[in-house]
Design goal:
By secondary structure, the protein is of the alpha+beta class. The protein folds into 2 domains: 6-118; 133-175, no CATH class. The protein has helices spanning 6-28, 32-58, 64-114, 133-143; strands at 150-156, 159-166, 169-175. The protein has a 3-stranded antiparallel sheet with strand order 1-2-3, with no helix packed on it. The protein starts with 5 loop residues before the first helix and ends with a strand.
């Protein structure tokens, strides 16, 4: 079944495949449950192919029904792990938002206890100041016509009109 030149080659390929899987696991471990589930998804995708080609390299041939069974089982397991990963990800996001809200409440209660007089000052409303026309014309001159384009949209009876103002000339385009 094996010749002397094939045996080390099959062993090297198997060692490299398991090395790649181990390296992926090592990289996924710091991310906790989410990382392990994502790694398992990649393993599930690679496993039928590794099994088929590994057995083929070893001289063991399996029929097409077994190959299809492995592929369908792999796809089903991949979907199951994906649902588990999505659920765990949602739990992690909700947990993170809850801790952020708790920390914000704690800091706001600490700040309100210290600065009860400055609570009215902390609600500052930021206003946007429009650019004066002189400065706007200077900006247009610096950037040129190609980078500064004004558009106006308006709707009239199922037709959207797009008014493009370029180089001071007005062009009217219709989009139906």
């Amino acid at each position: 079944m094996f010749t002397a030149s094939e045996t080390p080659l099959v062993a090297i390929v198997v060692i490299i495949a398991f090395g790649i899987l181990g390296w992926g696991f090592y990289r996924a471990k710091p991310f906790g449950k989410l990382g392990i589930l994502a790694w398992l998804q990649s393993v599930v995708l690679m496993a039928p192919w590794l099994l088929f080609f590994g057995l083929f390299a070893a001289g063991i041939y399996i029929n097409i029904v077994a190959i299809l069974f492995f592929l369908v089982a792999s796809a089903g397991l991949y979907v199951y792990l994906g649902r588990q990963l999505r659920a765990a990800g949602q739990d992690a996001i909700l947990r993170q938002k809850a801790t952020e809200r708790l920390s914000e409440k704690n800091t706001s209660t600490i700040n309100s206890g210290k600065n009860s007089d400055s609570s009215a000052d902390s609600s500052v409303v930021v206003e946007t100041i429009p650019i004066p026309d002189e400065e706007l014309s200077v900006i247009k001159g610096i950037f040129g016509i190609d980078t500064f384009l004004r558009l106006k949209l308006f709707l009239s009876r199922k037709v959207l009109f797009l008014k493009v103002i370029l180089e001071g000339k007005r062009k009217l385009s219709t989009i139906a």
